[in-house]
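INFO  loader      accepted 1 record
INFO  loader      residues=345
INFO  predictor   begin
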Amino acid sequence: MRRTLASAVAALAAAALPLVVPAAPAAAQPADGVSWGVAPAANAFGTGRARFEYGLDPGTRIADGIVVANHGAAPITLRVYAGDAFTTRSGGIDLQPTGTTPKDVGAWIKVSADTVTVAAGAAVTVAFTLTVPADATPGDHVGGLVTTLVDEAAAGGVRVEHRLGSRVYARVSGTLRPALTITDVQAEYAGTVDPTGTGPVRITYTVRNTGNVRLSGREQATVAGPFGLLSRDAAGELPEILPGNALTRTVTVRGVWPATRLTARIDVVPAGATADPVPRASAATALWTAPWGQLLVLAGVAAAVAGVLALRRRSKRRVAAAISAAVDAALAASRAGEQAPVDAR
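INFO  predictor   done
INFO  writer      dumping tokens
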């Protein structure tokens, strides 16, 4: 029972650990005294390559190698395998968890050995072949070559898997269709009661790579009032998105006036696909904002005006009443004089 539980926890731990798949050669140091690095081999494909990158025709078969260098003081044994890549929620590139069966470029790669033992301070080249299926779709297919080390002595008796990989970019010849699509645009305004103040608009949207080449780009967010007035904007860099993958982004536009009805627009200008320009992707949504600060000021002004008018009405009524009382008193005095008896003597 204890062994089964430990295996289950180990599987979860391994799946939760992110894979390091840098664009440049990298090293891993999971524990004291254990350290290794990986890099593409120097051969006819180039020297000092940052990653594996190929332009291939369907049906092509190539041979290459990955260098595994042991930087530690003791021999290490690593498992070596290939996998498919995907775009993470944070905008990075990762490989499918260990044990996942590859279906794309990871399935095209066959390594010469499933494991490799490297002596301390030494380096070993692991050969592999990549065979493009005859019916492979045109465009970019992204994966990686992975080296893994299982830590049997992790705290709590849980087996932890440390992974280090090198990216593989294979572009299959054919018609390239670079395209991005923006969906699910939502905007939220955080207002202020300051009548002279502004607030931020948070725009959340999903951008999907609907083409067959990997794309990055630049995002532009614009918030404007009616007729495009009081426009504010913000910009940012869009990380690379692999074909068929999507990424949810949030952009904050600051200094926005609460102009009752606002329009929030997102434009993404793609980059890094082909020599030809790629059409930008755009989408927009509307949101209503309540100018609470200005409304409070108007309410205060209206209350003050109403108070002044009420005081004026009261003053007029008092003046009218005083005049009426004086007139009545004068009339009463006049009548009293007319009715007084006359002395005949």
